[in-house]
Amino acid sequence: MKLVLIGAITGLVLSISWIIWGFGAALAILLTTAIFALIGLALDLSGFSFKKIVNKLSAKLAE
């Protein structure tokens, strides 16, 4: 059910942006979203997490 909701919201945002800004801008928004999603997926598969990064940073700042 969550994927259906995400797909519906994505389609709505894409169609509204297409109407407001035109096809080129809507395509740029879609490509940018896809690129950042792939970067996030790669970081997630590599084991990066914000919690680990914040813990390392705060440990270094505390020293």
Which key terms come to mind for this protein?
63 residues; mainly alpha; 0% strand; elongated; transmembrane helix
Helix and strand content put the structural class at mainly alpha
The shape, in one word, is elongated
Provide the β-strand percentage band: under 5%
- CA distance, first residue to last residue: 46 Å
Query: N-to-C SSE series?
Result: HHH
- The helix content is over 70%
Count of strand segments: 0
Radius of gyration: 17 Å
Number of helices: 3
Largest sheet features: none
Low-confidence runs: none
Can you tell me the number of structural domains?
Answer: 1
Mean pLDDT: 81
Could you explain the architecture of this structure?
- The chain is mostly helical and 63 residues long.
- It starts with a helix and ends with a helix.
- The chain has helices at 2-21, 23-46, 50-62.
- Helix 1 (2-21) runs antiparallel to helix 2.
- This is DUF2273 domain-containing protein.
- The chain crosses the membrane at residues 25-43.
Topology overview:
Blueprint: H1 2-21, H2 23-46, H3 50-62
Helix pairs in contact: 1-2
Transmembrane segments: 25-43
Organism: Limosilactobacillus fastidiosus
Protein name: DUF2273 domain-containing protein
Short description:
The protein has 63 residues and is mainly alpha-helical. The protein has one domain.
